[in-house]
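Exercise 7. Predict the joint structure of the components listed below.
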Amino acid sequence: MPNTVLIGAQWGDEGKGKVIDVMTEEVDLVVRYQGGNNAGHTVEIGDEKYVLHLIPSGILHDGKLCIIGNGVVVDPSALKKEIEDLEERKFQMQGRLFVSDRAHVVFPYHRELDIAREKPSAEGETIGTTKRGIGPAYGDKSSRRGLRMGDMLDTQVFLELVKARIEENNRILVALGAEALDASAVLSPLREAAEFLRPYIVDTLPMLNDAVAAGKSILFEGAQGTMLDIDFGTYPYVTSSNATAGGACTGSGVPPHRIDRVVAVVKAYTTRVGEGPFPTELEDDVGAHLSREGHEFGATTGRPRRCGWFDAVVARYSAALNGADYWAITKLDVLDQLETIKICVAYECDGERVENMPGDVRRFGRCVPIYEEVPGWKSSTTTVTRYEDLPANARAYVERLSELTGVAVGLLSVGPQRSSTLRIAL
Ligand code: GDP
Ligand code: IMO
Ligand code: MG
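Solution:
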């Protein structure tokens, strides 16, 4: 398979984990390149359900190599736990999972700062973060106050450096009205995690260079989604990394011309977790229907996801930004029982028709969807395995999404299981 970047085209939770799992069959390596354990990627195999936060979803295929790239921020205790859980479920981890020595560490003070800034009483608006410390960790990376996974290899020096940072961050925490951390309570689990993770921490660049030189195929696993991208999302209601396709290069070290194609995962409708504008949001019975049928609860925090119609303005913007070659459209089955379905084709804002995503979040917040309504198909699609066997109205819906966005459909997902997947061009 060509080297492929897989990204989310909306606000995350598009079903990337499932699509990665399906596509891993044909690749040699899977690489995560941004985000941290704010991500929750679900894979269902038979009766087993796995939710991966930091480890690439490709780990569920025996023999495939998985890399956590330099662009990821790693909470050592969370990674340790995720490895242990998978080991308990009989997956071989050592020799298959590698963590870049350049990936930055998420510390408990990052989590506490995230929590303190998310208090409704805190200055500024809340973002509705996952409270995993992601923003403060990337903040430290940019302000050159971060520590990296490679620093953990010299445990003694590492713990000394962390201790100094705890003292500094305690002053900030107290100023924010939060409690100071007890350094010894922080250092002891960190020491344990550092020892545990030692065999996994390597320079991943030679591995990736060799894989590229040998013509092996690499799948880049994006986390979050385009609308949560730090540069192109609905800032400030975004995450702190580049969730768009460009992040695959900076977050792994593989150069752009070694990437062959981009697959964008998009839900047949839209969801969002956390704060921020969402023009097609439905706060009615239809929204409740989508939430119920789609089991729309966060895989990381369990929060209910806000639900709404498919937004072709968002999808077109994502397709252009990421250079999407194909859509992987997921959760078509969630629409199975609807009488009619709406598609947002443009917005109305400040008295004019808007076809392109506004850069200003306040303007975006004033956008009202202009809908096109299409008939539903009122029958189950979840056991369909061939595109031509889908109900005619379901095919018409999929083709309309493709037409409105100018991107071909490569894969269709009609259920959480591997078997509920229609491979069209992927
Ligand atoms: P990710 O973060 O993009 O990997 O997505 P999540 O795992 O957070 O959320 C997607 C949810 O939808 C998971 O519970 C998946 O098991 C489920 N899912 C994925 N594809 C489909 C599909 O085609 N139909 C249905 N009904 N569920 C799906
Ligand atoms: P996956 O990879 C959906 C959202 C949070 C919040 C904003 C900032 O499973 O698609 P953060 O903790 O990153 O600082 O929170 O981003 N968010 C996600 N929403 N899916 C995710 O990941 C998300 N990761 C972060 O809800 O609005
Ligand atoms: Mg998710």
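Discussion. The longest strand covers residues 340-349.
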